[in-house]
Fold this protein.
Amino acid sequence: MASAEIAAEHERILREIESTDTNCIGPTLRSVYDGQEHGLFMDKLEGRIRNHDREIEKMCNHHFQGFVDSITELLKVRGEAQKLKGQVTETNQKLQSDGKELLKSMDELRQCRLQQRNIATTIDKLTHCLPVLEMYSRLQEQMRAKRYYPALCTLEQLEQSCLPRAGGYRFCAIMAENIPVLRTHIRDVSMSDLKDFLESIRKHSDKIGETAMKQAQVQSSRDSDITHQQRTGSGKRLRREVGSGTMVESSGGSPNSEQDSGILDVEDEEDDEVPGAHDLVDFSPVYRCLHIYTVLGSRDTFESYYRKQRRKQARLVLQPHSNMHETLEGYRRYFNQIVGFFVVEDHILHTTQGLVNRAYVEELWEVALSKTIAALRTHSSYCTDPDLILDLKNLIVLFADTLQGYGFPVNQLFDMLLEMRDQYGEILLKKWNLSFRQIIDQDNYSPIPVSTEEEYRRISGQFPFQDPELEKMSFPKKLPFSEFVPKVYSQLKEFIYACLKYSEDLHLSSTEIDDMIRKSTNLLLTRTLSHCLQYAIKKKNVGLAELVQIIINTTHLEMSCHYLEEFISNITNVPPDGVNATKLYGTSTFKDARHSAEEEIYTNLNLKIDQFLQLADYDWMAAQGGGQASDYLSDLIAFLCSTFSVFTHLPGSPIEHARLPGKVAQTACMSACKHLSTSLLQLLLEADVRQVSMGALQQFNVDVKECERFARAGPVPGFQGDTLLLAFIDLRQLLDLFTQWDWSTYLADYGRPTCKYLRVNPHTALALLEKMKDTSRKNNMFAQFRKNERDKQKLIDTVVKQLRNLIAAHQS
């Protein structure tokens, strides 16, 4: 049993040796040597080998003929192989000989292909590097040419596009290191150009403003011509041409070229005579700097710097010179600088995007407007020349119109001009006051002699005077008024023209202009001319003849007032009978002056009468009176007669002929007579005259009769009956009472309307009677021894007593 298992195991091992790879037979053999049947296995193995040898021998015997045949064929093949080897060797030698040239060509081809590959690589690298070098070269040229904005764009393109494609070459690294330096240099240089620009426009702002204002003036003249043509009925629709205030908007983007000056084309082809205000300024530094800072990402910094610097310049521009008010040129330079400043700002506003905005410009303008108005109010207040004020007004209007053309609100300037109108009016009043006084001082107070028709027409052209009767008279002849009248009338018209000149171009309606002129003319009439007339009337050494001529002059000026009304209406095109039309006060002014002259005549006459009365030298103690009037009174009567003969030239009313006797002469005569009567009575009753004799009363009565003869003679025509005698009625009744000693009638009829001595005041009679009573006592020392004297004294005492009782009764 055990031997069978061993035999089976050996059989398995043999099969495994036969079927297993030689490299893996080790474990199988080890299992043989590990067992006890090693010899038995070896026997078994040798038996198996012999079996295989027998099988091989059988196999070889079976295939031997084929092997022999194969050997035979192989021997044959060896001969052929030798031949073939010789042929191959020969062929190889020939091939090696022939391949040397080919190998040389192939090597050359390889070298050529390598060079081609290197050249292609080099070209590719140069393709990326040459644009960098070209661009850097262009950058250097632009920097040398100071074309900084294109240089900055080139720098940007170089950094963003070219250098990354070129690769990491050393020159690229050097360029990359220089880029920030170049940017800083460009920024600094552009800022330097901007500073130069700001300094330049600060220095030349007056020239810019002057040009802009000239453009506005030319445009205003053109508009005036167009308006005039329309008014004259040309019937053509004329286009309002583009003026200096027209703005051309710019995109504000990057400039196409470095030479973009930013100047606006503000002129038509027809405006070659006045260059555009912006043609004087090259704005390219601003645009360059703005674009450069925008590209550099510092636009906010640039905007802040620009606005800050311009605000500083605005403060300098708005600061007027201390002596600006002395000449018009000072105001002109001031306005030119302001206009130039805002023309530049307005151009910057419309040609850049956001460098300045509308709110910033409006804020600057509001500040400028308030400071300008304050400066003008201060400096114009020092001005006393109306021509300078008028020129200043025209300059302010041109200043306002210029800035209004650029879109700036200027209503406050026109409001200030309306305020200045009052100052202008006051200065005109002062000037015309001097003119009126000069006319008054130079006037000869004599009627104007006219020798020829030309002289008459000339004066009629100066003053609206019409007198059919005077025109019928032959030359030479005299006009009733003096040179004062046409000169004053001409000055009134000149004043109206001066007021009209100021109201022009203030955008006022015709009604407002008419109202302004009328109010100013009323001030001239009621204040200035009225004061001058009072000056003429009240000045020293003015004679009655001069006063008479003043009355005649004022009468004719009063008659001319409606012509002044028509004159104002004609120049303002406003009817004088409008609802809101202001009336001239010339009539009342000349009436007041005439009344004042009349009062002055009355006063002067009374003063002259008083001067004559001061020469009176009565002998109040005379025993009896003389048969003739006193010398002083005769001289006084002669003076009054000659004076009232002059009065025959006084007008009776504004519509009567100037040479007719008037109410003024009658009033003057009546006033003189009343004053003479009153003065004589006061002379009789004055305190210094303590005693009055009957003889003195008789002489006084003779003088009063002389006055009555003068009144009865009618020195001035026009009195009815004995009206002028009534001036002496009080004195006449008093003297009749004393000379006729008619006390019984006086005392009996006192208080009755039909009393003979109705005008005798008991106080006056008592005062005079007391003086006569004292005379009787002192001059008749022995009167008590004479019966007649005693009776007379008793009678005087009785009358005195009755008069006192009468006065007491009436007082109670």
